[in-house]
């Protein structure tokens, strides 16, 4: 094994060791030029020494001993961070090579790598599963998505030069599983989780094999064998406390024995009762990353995406969305919860509990600053941070004059949802009426993904509620969440926001502000929502300095920059503000 090292502060390009990780022994070795490690003979953990046979690059240095024993400074050899790469970052062999280079370009980092399935593999596995239910056992091989998955992974193995043996068992297992689904003509939530796990199991095996092939020791881990212990809520499982000591014991134990880069499957866990493979909800690899960060008490968690960080709104809705440099855990959690696809809704919880900073970076553009998410940030200039849109939401207006002046109305309403296991999103209430929204995606865990089942369930809820109140069911609504500093600037944001909505002729159907003072949610019709986001974005982020919040005690005419880095004009091709 050839690896370059840095001694006496002279840097070489190697990754195996650098001057920080090697302390000079009592002999006071004092090389002044780079040397190359030819052979790592012996690593003795007990007395923390490393015997390295070195060949000096410059001839005169060969006069010195070619074998030396170095004392290891163990604190410098700790795992330092998590680097999580999503499906878009590892979509092909070429992308995996770029990701490997990216990881290795930080020689001082000792990362735990968390990977998602390649590209759209999870979606393809789910479609293949649905097709298997009704295609008949003999027709499994006609499922296009299966052929695509096989072809993608085999091609990637070839292009990475690692051979297909690392994924052969999984490809075979996948076909057998689809056969089983075809035979049973059913796809339970438990089987669905097992089915999608093949995506992460294969991407991590390919990637770890590639790192090993290029000379960087790596070790693949399946999260469900490594200590990520979850509830048995298939397709939407929650990480349990027992995970933290288990993951720490396993990863740190292995790391002390051998410094092999851990490459862990994101998204997956093991149900604590069933011992079956579970998944953490779509986009769950972010949660795996922060869970590992907390378990090991690492310096930071990096989530590498295909965008320059968390943006001021969804770039698919409005391409003038801009990166937000700094967020608090609270802001990021609200943003994710209210539908910003960029982060898993629960991923901020472990980070916040462990106070581990999270950095959102772009694997396609590593030099971009990205977004740093921490417990607190300077809020003195913060007004609006981001606008989030959640479409296709169902809203209920529930009114009961009978309950005027009586206690328990709200509790009766909410207990109806509790009994039916339905989660409520946004709530606004007066004494005898309550408006609330329900998100169809929350029904996924109840095997109610199909629209028909969803409507059936909603009708059932309405019937129950009509026992105590008049219910008005309103579908095809959107929640627009304004994430910002409402503690300081709520009147300013509302005044400005309402002006934008009024000039655009948009009628708000409900408003709610959470106790966290981080977000205000507005409910509008689905067909007005995108236009609404563009208009708000344009007004808050693109109109220069004059619309900023005046400071208390100053003249209202004194301008403050709304966002210093967003002094751009609205794009009139995208938006026509009346
Ligand atoms: N506010 C937002 N900021 C950044 N990206 C967003 C936002 N809202 C939606 N997105 C979308 O989220 C995508 C990144 O999330 P995701 O697809 O889960 O990434 P990955 O698969 O790489 O983990 C972006 O490509 C972007 O289209
Ligand atoms: N592969 C899973 C888990 C995940 O986190 O993916 P991504 O990092 O690509 O969002 C999914 O598609 O949901």
From TrEMBL:
User: Which is one Pfam family of this protein?
Assistant: ACT_9
* EC number in record: 2.7.2.4
Cite the annotated pathway. Amino-acid biosynthesis; L-threonine biosynthesis; L-threonine from L-aspartate: step 1/5; Amino-acid biosynthesis; L-methionine biosynthesis via de novo pathway; L-homoserine from L-aspartate: step 1/3; Amino-acid biosynthesis; L-lysine biosynthesis via DAP pathway; (S)-tetrahydrodipicolinate from L-aspartate: step 1/4
* UniProt GO BP: lysine biosynthetic process via diaminopimelate; threonine biosynthetic process
Task: Write down the superkingdom of origin.
Answer: Eukaryota
Domain ACT as annotated: residue spans: 482-554
Q: Which SUPFAM superfamilies match?
A: ACT-like, Carbamate kinase-like
Quote one Gene Ontology molecular function term.
ATP binding
Q: Keywords in alphabetical order, please.
A: Amino-acid biosynthesis, ATP-binding, Kinase, Nucleotide-binding, Threonine biosynthesis, Transferase
What family does this chain come from, according to its entry?
Belongs to the aspartokinase family.
Q: What is this protein called?
A: aspartate kinase
């Amino acid at each position: 094994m050839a690896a370059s090292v840095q001694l006496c502060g002279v840097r070489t390009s190697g990754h195996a060791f650098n001057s920080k990780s090697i302390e000079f022994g009592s002999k006071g070795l004092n090389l002044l030029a780079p040397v190359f490690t030819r052979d790592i003979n012996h690593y003795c953990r007990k007395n923390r020494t490393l015997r390295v046979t070195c060949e000096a690059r410059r001839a005169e240095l060969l006069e010195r001993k070619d074998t030396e024993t170095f004392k290891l400074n163990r604190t410098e050899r700790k795992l330092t961070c998590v680097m999580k790469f999503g499906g878009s970052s590892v979509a092909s062999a070429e992308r995996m090579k770029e990701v490997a280079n990216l990881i290795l370009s930080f020689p001082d980092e000792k990362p735990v790598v968390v990977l998602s399935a390649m590209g759209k593999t999870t979606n393809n596995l789910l479609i293949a599963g649905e097709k298997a239910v009704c295609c008949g056992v003999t027709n499994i091989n006609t499922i296009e998505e299966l052929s695509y998955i096989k072809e993608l992974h085999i091609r990637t193995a070839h292009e990475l030069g690692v051979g297909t043996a690392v994924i052969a068992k999984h490809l075979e297992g996948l076909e057998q599983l689809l056969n089983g689904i075809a035979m049973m003509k059913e796809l339970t939530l438990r089987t669905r989780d097992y089915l999608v796990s093949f995506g992460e199991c294969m991407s991590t095996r390919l990637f770890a094999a590639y790192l090993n092939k290029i000379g960087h020791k790596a070790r693949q881990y399946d999260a469900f064998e490594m200590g990520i212990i979850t509830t048995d809520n298939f397709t939407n499982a929650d990480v349990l406390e027992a995970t933290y000591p288990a993951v720490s014991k396993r990863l740190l134990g292995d790391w002390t024995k051998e410094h092999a880069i851990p490459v862990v499957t994101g998204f997956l866990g093991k149900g604590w009762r069933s011992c079956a493979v579970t998944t953490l909800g779509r986009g769950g690899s972010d949660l795996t990353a922060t869970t590992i960060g907390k378990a090991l008490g690492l310096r930071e968690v990096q989530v590498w995406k295909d965008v320059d960080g968390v943006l001021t709104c969804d770039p698919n809705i409005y391409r003038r969305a801009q990166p937000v440099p700094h967020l608090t855990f609270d802001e990021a959690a609200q943003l994710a919860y209210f539908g910003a696809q960029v982060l898993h809704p629960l991923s901020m919880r472990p980070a916040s509990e462990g106070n581990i900073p999270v950095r959102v970076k772009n694997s396609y553009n590593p030099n971009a600053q990205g977004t740093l998410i921490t417990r607190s940030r300077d809020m003195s200039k913060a007004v609006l941070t981001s606008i989030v849109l959640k479409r296709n939401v169902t809203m209920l207006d529930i009114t009961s004059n009978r309950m005027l002046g009586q206690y328990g109305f709200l509790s009766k309403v909410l207990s109806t949802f509790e009994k039916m296991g339905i989660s409520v999103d946004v709530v606004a209430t007066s004494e005898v009426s309550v408006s609330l929204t329900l998100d169809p995606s929350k029904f996924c865990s109840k095997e109610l993904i199909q629209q028909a089942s969803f409507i059936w369930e909603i009708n059932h809820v309405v019937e129950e509620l009509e026992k105590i109140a008049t219910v008005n069911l309103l579908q095809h609504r959107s929640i627009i969440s304004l994430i910002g500093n409402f503690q300081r600037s709520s009147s300013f944001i509302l005044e400005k926001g309402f002006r934008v909505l009024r000039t655009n002729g948009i009628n708000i159907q409900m408003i709610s502000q959470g106790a966290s003072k981080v977000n205000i949610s507005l409910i509008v019709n689905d067909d007005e929502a995108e236009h609404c986001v563009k208009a708000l974005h344009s007004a808050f982020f693109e109109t220069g300095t004059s619309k900023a919040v005046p400071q208390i005690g100053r003249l209202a005419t004194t301008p403050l920059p709304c966002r210093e880095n967003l002094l751009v004009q609205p794009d009139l091709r995208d938006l026509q503000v009346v």
